[in-house]
Amino acid sequence: MMSRSVQDASSGVVPPPAVSGAVDDDAVVGRGLHFSYGDSHVLQDVDLRVGVGEIVVLIGPSGCGKSTILNLIAGTIAPSAGSLTCSGVPIRGLNRRVTYLTQRDTLLPWRTALDNAALPLEIKHVARAERHRRAGEALARVGVDHASGRRLHELSGGMRSRVALARALLSESDIFLLDEPFAAIDALLRVKLQRLLIDVWESTRKTMIYVTHDLSEAICLGDRVIVMGANPGRVVLERSITTPHPRDPARFRTTTEAQQIYEELWTALDQ
Question: Which of 10, 33, 56, 102 is in Cβ range 3.0-4.6 Å of 46 for a Cys bridge?
Answer without folding.
Answer: 33
